[in-house]
Each structure stands twice: as C-alpha cells, then as structure tokens.
Amino acid sequence: MSARSQQSAAASTAATTRELNVVDGLAQLSFLVYRTLERRATEHNLSMIQVRLLGVLRDRRPTINELARLLALDKSSVSGLVERAERRGLVVRTHSSTDGRSVLVSLSDPGRSLVADAAARFGADISALLERLPASDRRALSRLVSRLLVAHAAEAGIDLFPSSPAADG
Asked: For the chain, which residues make up each domain, given as ranges?
C-alpha cells in the first residue's frame, strides 16, 4: 500500500469514528450538495433559482401562481424568471383551456433535454459521493431523507409525487 493510500485509509477510518451533531452535519451536507448542484448549473449558464424552476417543471405544468408557491417567491419574481427562461427557449407558456386567465408553464423540448443532461450529471456526482457509504446506509439515508421531505412538503400542501404533468392545470 502506497503512503498516499495509507494516509487516505487512515483519514477515512478517523472520519468514521467521529460524528458531527445532526445540525452541523446537515448544514455541511447541504453546502456540499449545493456546491455540486451549482457547479452543474454553471455548466449550463443557469442560476440556482433557474435550476429550481426547471426542477419543478420536470414533472408538472403549474400556473404562475402555483410556481410562486412552490418556489416561495412573489408572483412578479416568478413572471420575470419564466420570461427569461422562455427567451432562452427552456420553457413555454400556454393558456389553460379550462381557465382562459391562467397560464401554464412547462419545459420546452430543449429545456427537457437540458434538465435530463444536468440531472444525470448531478445524479452521478451524488452517487459518487454516496459510494463512500455501505449500500445499507445509502438505503437508510434515502428512506430518512424521503420521510423528512415528504412530511415537510405535506405540511406545505405540496405533492412531491405528481403522477405526470397536468394535462391542463
């Protein structure tokens, strides 16, 4: 074993014998995930709020008001965000056939392609990070994170698992 490999193994063993408290651990993990996502966003010349918008649109066709609620932004901010994404060809706006006053927002074909590429790369980044954990720990982490996020979303009245993009809002 090389000296570098021994140092890495020693550091890994030391790292597994000490634990951060849950607040510090979650904060540090969120920073790590954010930096990773931000790096992928930068590759596509996207801001983090644009990433959030495109992420929401992966599986739904919300109105501007629904986007405002989902993104926790005011309606005018969302309108500007959607307008900029539309100019880049990433999203399209269509009028609802059931409510002529409502505008639905969805990913365009180029937007869907960009999201698929960025999501695959980000997924690979996170998978590489999680490979440091045994498979049983990865499954446990997935269950815990899912339970926490589903409960939080339910309290906010958000369905994290819409069946498919709404046909017409």
From this structure: 21-155
Span 119-145, pLDDT tens digits: 999 999 999 999 999 999 999 999 999
Render the burial of 62-96: b for 16+ CB within 10 Å, e for the rest: bbbebbbebbebeeeebbebbeebeeeebbbeeee
Strand bridging mode 91-95 / 103-107: antiparallel
What pTM was estimated for this model as a whole?
0.81
* pLDDT value for 167: 47
Helix axis angle, 75-87 relative to 64-71, nearest 10°? Answer: 110
Which residues contact residue 115 at a Cβ distance below 8 angstroms, ignoring those fewer than 6 apart? Answer: 54, 55, 57, 58, 107
Q: What is the CATH number of domain 21-155?
A: 1.10.10.10
